[in-house]
């Protein structure tokens, strides 16, 4: 006799079963009835892996009477009496039973009624004295001969001490079998349904894990057990969440394989097509009818494998896909693509399946890939667009279409890997020469060609475009871009100067940006050009869908830099850099880092300039920069030189650069930086040659603006340091001042500093003080430190020693802030901060407030008493962005983080208007 219910349930739980009290009690009742001589049948039904097998085995092993079990398998359906043999084998049946089974199995027409009757009698004889519990697992897979015998036995159980337990996976199809029909007629048969578990709180460490487990398993005991195994065997997650590991994936796939044969194909079709798949499309892909799809989905929902017709977690979908062989997976993806295409689905839905199928052998796929590539470009998915275009190129057999796709590949790849785009040009140039490309495609290739130093090929393309009868906005933008970046190839229209050319509201960002830059290069800084550049940046994205990519934003930024709008340029650079970082756009990050480095260099923030320039070459190595390498490399050389790191600057100069660079605007930055390195290392004639070369190029190109590179002041400095031809130096300085006019600018501040060196000692202090005021306003810390250093020397020459020392101390602090180590050493030889503290009383460094410029002190004083940035800007008549930059430097110099931390001593510097 069976033990108590509590003991039985303990054993069941040890077998991995919970929430089976009612089912266990039902089985105990049926067992009691059968022991009294009235045979019973228990049909254990439930979804796949719902615990039927565990319950059957656990009850049979603990029931206290003789227990035999048989397991059915779909692979053994063709084995006659396979299940019956499993039952009789452990019962020590007489030899006659074995002979009877052999004879019945050999019968071509199946077992006869006489044979079935004889086998039933043999079983009843064996149970006459000892009760018997028979467990048959997965009875839906039993062979037909065994099913006939079971039906025969069930009809005769009324006076036999037998409990027959049958387990069956619930299925709509199983309800219509002969076995089910017979069981419904049997008065002593009981259904024992097993539903998914409703709670697993006792099995997991935390309620959160238990909730997650229920969400992933739907209460399926096998899946729950697999999740427990994953928590035990896998590395815990950093966030403490539930681990989904290999055990879960294996268990889920096992459930599908154990289900009816139609379930697995539908599950695979669902994994391939996605959540929005219709039952019709699933049926076509799985090659079954709609009713079968509905049945399979119901089975998977009931088993907890799906939730409302979709996988409970991406890991579940991935497990189903991984269960497919590589070839089967490709075939299913291709089948899904064909289905979607036949149904008229958009290219954005069809193309991903073709990519996953790695299939591009049919002409109808070409427009699908091209349209999908356009959408990918608009969504800034550049890598995906490239993949689509590569497959379109592979599928296209028409010559002109294939050439057009190749040209587009060049344009798109230029935005993520310019050097790779250059390698593609080898296949596109022959197509251009053969006349297989449109004028628009040829126009779009000019920039990549010149970027990759293919000047001859670019010249051919320009000749082809210029022979065209119409001039589009794209051609206008290209001509202006050439005038700005490759002036030797430009053909600027003689009528209608650039400055007065109107840009229409429908003009693209490239035409607007290059027009603003051309105006700055030709006519100098103006509010209208800066405004036009900002308009471009307001609509800019780090990855533009046009053929120029992110360069339109870069050109607009350069227009602001050359116009000395450094604060505005810095803000836009930081914004675009963050967007490009979020989207992992390497080329865009390289471009914007380069401009940000130039802004920092012109502000005298040498360390930041050096770091951003390094970043630019990290995001896009030197080979990818092409002719534009002169920009980031020039910044590195210039920043290293100003910091006194001459060996580093020399090593950067050893980097090979393309010869074509020196016929482009980018070469000016390199020549200018190299000249300053030569100047700092006492190679004055070499420096002068580089500066004068800049002047010759800029003059001949019509872009002689100091905002690009102030070659006149640098050449004058070379003459002055050499100690010869001071008259030529003075002429260059005066010429520079005349070209600048009365407006203040960084270059004017530098020119005044150098002009002081050509004047008599008593005239120098005033010129240098004027230079200091200008450089303070424009925030160039390095040039301000130099101007202060020269002012200190001027006071020293006039024997104004105390004033000279005060100015020298301030110059040292400014130079120290911008990491100009060599200049610091020149101002306070062999003395660092600690040494300066030990100086005599009259020579001790001033308090930290003394390190501030006059402009910074005014801003800091107003901020300390509670004025907002906008209010300070209104009082001092400068922009809020300038206020922000001043405060950033104030916080750094005073080593504070917030306004409330500003020292009270600043109050004495409040402007009278406050």
Automatic annotation (TrEMBL):
Tell me the lineage of the source organism. Answer: Bacteria, Bacillati, Actinomycetota, Actinomycetes, Pseudonocardiales
Query: Among its keywords, does the record have Transcription regulation?
Result: yes
Q: Which Pfam families does the protein's record reference?
A: AAA_16, GerE
Q: PROSITE patterns under this entry?
A: HTH_LUXR_1, HTH_LUXR_2
- Record key words, sorted: DNA-binding, Transcription, Transcription regulation
Q: Does the keyword Transcription apply?
A: yes
Q: Where is the HTH luxR-type domain?
A: 845-910
What PANTHER family does the entry give?
Answer: DNA-BINDING TRANSCRIPTIONAL ACTIVATOR DEVR_DOSR (PTHR44688)
| Classification via InterPro entries | AAA_16, P-loop_NTPase, Sig_transdc_resp-reg_C-effctor, TPR-like_helical_dom_sf, Tscrpt_reg_LuxR_C, WH-like_DNA-bd_sf
Q: What is this protein called?
A: AAA family ATPase
- Give the organism, scientific name: Lentzea miocenica
